[in-house]
Amino acid sequence: MQPLPPEQWDDFQKANPLNVFTTLARHPTLYRAWLRFGGALLYGTLPARDRELAILRTAHHRGSAYEWAQHVRIAREAGLSDQEIESVRQADATWEPADRLVLRVADELHTGGDLSDATWAALCERYDEPGRIELVMLVAHYDMLAVVLNTLRVRIED
C-alpha cells in the first residue's frame, strides 16, 4: 500500500513524514484513534529502556523491519547501546535481571499470548498495577502494529 501523496498530508504528517503515518492515514478514522492510543503507549509511564526493549523484541519476533528500524533510533535515544540493541535478537544473550524480565514478557506474549505465573509474579515485584497493564498492552500493540506494517508492506524511509 502506498503512502498518501505529500499534497494530502495533514500538519502532523508534514512534521512527521514517516511512512507509518502517511500510510495508515489512508483510513482517517482509525488513524486518528491509533495515533492517540499509540502515543499514550509510546509516551507512557514505563521507563524508556523497558519500553524500547519490549518493542524491539516484538519487532524481532514478528520480523518487522520497519518497526525495528524506527525503534533502533528511539532505543539509542533511550540509552541502549548498539551492542544491546543487536543482543535483543539473541535468545541466549546475557542481560541484567530487569532487562531479562522485559524480554521474557515479550517472548511469552509472542509465543503463548499469555504470561506464566512466574513471570507475572516477577512483574508484580517490579511494576505497579498500571505499569503491568501498560507493559502487556505495549507488547500487544506493537505486535499488532508489526502485523499491519508487514501486511501493508510499509517501506522503510530512505
UniProtKB/TrEMBL annotation:
One MF annotation (Gene Ontology) recorded for this entry: peroxiredoxin activity
Provide the protein name: Carboxymuconolactone decarboxylase
**What InterPro entries would the database entry show?**
AhpD-like, CMD-like
User: Where does the Carboxymuconolactone decarboxylase-like domain lie?
Assistant: 28-94
Highest taxon in the source lineage: Bacteria
